[in-house]
Amino acid sequence: MIKKNCYIIVFLLGLGCNKSSVFTPKADAVFLPKKIIIESSQTTLQTQQCNSLYATPQDNTGNRFPSSRPLNISLADASSEKIMLYQRPDCSDQPVSYIALSAGAAAAIFYFKMTRPGTFTVHAVTEKKDEIPVHFQKDLTVIDSELNAEKKPLASTLKFENEPVDIPASTSFSIQIAVQDKNGNLVEDFQSPIVITIIESPPLGSKYFQTGTLTITASQGKGEFKDLSINTPGNNYRLQVSSEHLKALSKTFNILPPQSRDITVIFNGKRKSAKFIPPNIIEEKDGDRFPVYPNGTSEIKINGVKYRVQLLSPDVVTIDQLQ
Where among 228, 256, 284 does a domain terminate? Predict the structure, then answer.
């Protein structure tokens, strides 16, 4: 009994036996399991799919029996071709030809993936110096994941659904675009942001939009840039839409001198009709006039009263009395 208890203490705690004990192991004594059991529930896999294996060292009676030194486990098929192993559940780390079952470990989990389709008899082994039987042999059916996966079209083109036309300065317009594959079909699952810019403008023209939604995400392969406006007249403007590696250019168009037009003014929270008079005057029906400046907010005084004027879109302006 003393000898047996001492054996357990030495193995589990790494302690030495006292001099009165019968059993005194050498410092370099090695305790190895009688077998290694590897479990896996998968029998049908897909290529490039990461799969798990669970290994436990055991004694002859099926109890877990950690080894006193690391044991290297490798995986191979019937042709003895080694199968690459991984330590991360998504197989994102560098592959190795074997996994070390650490000294003192009661169990280990490791991962593998098959790179080619077919039927394979897979078995596991330890290094020859250990000569410990590994109880794992399984017939696996590996399916080509690319053949079984639904083929999704790849985006290859951005297309202007409507081209910009000649339009007065500070007048709103919209641009619709489509994301297409090489056959002209809509790529409905395209989710990358799409940006619109002024790619070409006349020497004294605007390089930026006055207003508008400049970044969008397509829905079902289509998207719309709304409330765009350019406030500087000139010829040969051109737009560009871009996303990732995709780009598309519009036809050239002109921005005409601004024209008087009806707009909406939100005055102290109440909507009113008003008129925009080029180049930058808002005239209410009662005759009050307010200057409005593009690309921002302005504060002005009229008859000693201070107002904040903000251009929300080419057709909507807010005016708030500050005092």
Answer: 256
Terminal CA-to-CA distance of the chain, rounded, Å? 98
Q: Which residues contact 79 (CB under 8 A, 6 or more apart)?
A: none
From residue 162, give the alpha-carbon distance in Å to each of 72, 169, 191, 225, 251: 65, 19, 21, 11, 10
pLDDT in tens, 85-136: 888 888 888 888 887 778 888 888 888 887 777 777 777 777 666 667 777 7
- The reported pTM is 0.44
Q: Domain containing 272: what range?
A: 261-321
Give the closest residue to 114 by CA, choosing from 141, 135, 88: 141
239: nearest Cα among 163, 307, 181: 163
Q: Tell me how many degrees the CA angle 123-126-130 measures, rounded to the nearest 5.
A: 150
Domain count, the chain: 4
Predicted confidence (pLDDT) per residue in 215-274, tens digit: 999 999 999 999 999 988 999 999 999 998 899 999 999 999 888 888 888 888 888 888
